[in-house]
């Protein structure tokens, strides 16, 4: 199963400091959302996640609101698990990092190999020019519309 990896280049453009983030579900973020957010220096997101989980915890202790509190806490966990990596990417982009590539690969090693093999080496390479006929091919005669039934030019 292939994952998508996002490559971010720092504001100074130094390729050796490129960061790679797997864009997908973060299992640890699902289990421990605000701790995971703090570990990745997403302070504001961590405060919001902690507050929502605290509200969910308080709701579970109120009579009749137990399921709502559990649903809120679970929703926070699920949301951070699904969107946690995107929070990291957006945070770096806000600080000036540039998204350079998104590569689908079965492993991080293969994604890095693909990414770093595409960096220009200074060689003068030119893309081939494709000679294609411009315009649509006009067909004359009777044909079917989407393969369903024929259209013979109007009403009779």
By DSSP, the count of extended strands is: 5
In terms of structural class, how would the helical and strand content be classed? alpha+beta
Number of helices: 5
Radius of gyration from CA coordinates: 26 Å
Low-confidence parts, pLDDT < 50 over ≥5 residues?
none
Reported for the largest beta sheet, the result is: 3 strands, antiparallel
Helix content: 40-55%
Distance between the termini: 56 Å
Q: What is the overall silhouette?
A: elongated
Question: Numbering strands along the chain, what is their spatial order in the largest sheet?
Answer: 2-1-3
The portion of residues forming beta strands comes to: 15-25%
Q: Mean pLDDT, as a whole number?
A: 82
Helix and strand run = EEHHHHEHEE
Explained architecture:
It is a single chain. Helices cover 45% and strands 15% of the residues. It is of the alpha+beta class. The strands form two sheets. A three-stranded antiparallel sheet has the order 2-1-3, sandwiched between helices. A two-stranded antiparallel sheet has the order 4-5. α2 runs antiparallel to α3 (43-61) and α3 (43-61) packs antiparallel against α4 (66-94). It is elongated, with a radius of gyration of 26 Å. It starts with a strand and ends in a 6-residue tail after the last strand. The model has no long low-confidence stretch (mean pLDDT 82).
């Amino acid at each position: 199963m292939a994952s998508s990896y996002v490559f971010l280049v720092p504001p100074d453009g130094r390729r050796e400091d490129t960061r790679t983030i797997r864009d997908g579900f973060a299992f640890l973020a699902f289990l421990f959302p605000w701790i995971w957010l703090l570990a990745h220096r997403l302070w504001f997101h961590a405060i919001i996640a902690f507050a929502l989980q605290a509200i969910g915890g308080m709701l579970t202790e109120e009579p009749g609101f137990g399921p709502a509190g559990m649903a809120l806490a679970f929703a926070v966990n699920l949301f951070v698990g699904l969107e946690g990596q995107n929070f990291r990417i957006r945070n770096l982009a806000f600080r000036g990092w540039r998204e350079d590539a998104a590569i689908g690969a079965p492993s991080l090693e293969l994604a890095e190999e693909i990414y770093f093999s595409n960096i220009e080496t200074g060689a003068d390479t030119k893309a081939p020019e494709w000679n294609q006929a411009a315009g649509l091919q006009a067909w004359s005669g009777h044909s079917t519309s989407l393969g369903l039934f024929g259209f013979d030019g109007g009403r009779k």
